[in-house]
């Protein structure tokens, strides 16, 4: 009986890890895609952004556009790796989300509301990638499909009269 309970706990942990990893992958994909769009907007049309005088981290908006475009492209690639539960994607995903936070903080005066939204989304990505233990993540790649796991074996049922 103890074996069944441990198996159920193990399966629950795998489902939790799968859900958080998928959440982080989808969120990172969205952040990357939105950062790509923001980069294209900044490169093509500088008029839509607010200009702030005497800002300490003042860059040309075209420079900010290229920075966001590059971060977005890398974020989309890493999100695809996260869907495959690759460990490198988990590590790089935290780093990219951190860089997205820094880039959006530094460009806060140019597009304030959107920067705050991106800061929040990136924070959730970092949380989701860091909360899943490494052991649960490695179990995901070796896990059987969920349909196979839920099928009880015939040996667990008591045999009736033959």
Offer a concise description of the structure.
This protein has 162 residues and is mainly α.
Annotation keywords:
162 residues, 0% strand, mainly alpha
Detail the topology: elements first, then pairings.
Blueprint: H1 2-44, H2 61-83, H3 87-106, H4 112-131, H5 134-142, H6 146-149
Helix pairs in contact: 1-2, 1-4, 1-5, 2-3, 3-4
How many beta-strand runs? 0
Radius of gyration: 22 Å
The ordered H/E elements are HHHHHH
**What sort of overall outline do the alpha carbons produce when their principal axes are compared?**
elongated
Could you estimate the helical fraction of the residues in percent?
Answer: over 70%
Beta-strand portion reads under 5%
Separation, N- and C-terminal Cα atoms: 25 Å
| Helical segment count | 6
Mean pLDDT: 77
Give the biggest sheet.
none
Sequence stretches where pLDDT stays below 50 over 5 or more residues: 143-150
**Assembly state (oligomeric):** single chain
The chain-level structural class is mainly alpha
């Amino acid at each position: 009986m103890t074996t069944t309970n441990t198996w159920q706990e193990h399966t629950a942990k795998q489902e939790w890890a799968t859900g958080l990893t998928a959440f982080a992958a989808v969120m990172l994909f969205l952040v990357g895609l939105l950062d790509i769009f923001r980069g294209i907007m900044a490169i093509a049309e500088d008029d839509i952004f607010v200009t702030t005088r005497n800002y300490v981290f003042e860059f040309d908006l075209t420079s900010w556009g290229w920075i966001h475009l590059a971060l977005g492209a890398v974020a989309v690639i890493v999100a695809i790796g996260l869907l495959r539960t690759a460990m490198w994607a988990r590590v790089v995903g935290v780093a990219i989300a951190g860089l997205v936070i820094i880039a959006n903080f530094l460009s806060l005066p140019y597009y304030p509301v959107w920067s705050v939204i991106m800061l929040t989304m990136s924070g959730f990505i970092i949380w989701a990638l860091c909360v899943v233990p490494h052991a649960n993540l490695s179990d995901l790649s070796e896990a059987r499909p969920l349909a196979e796991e839920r099928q009880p074996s015939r040996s667990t049922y008591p045999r009736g009269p033959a």
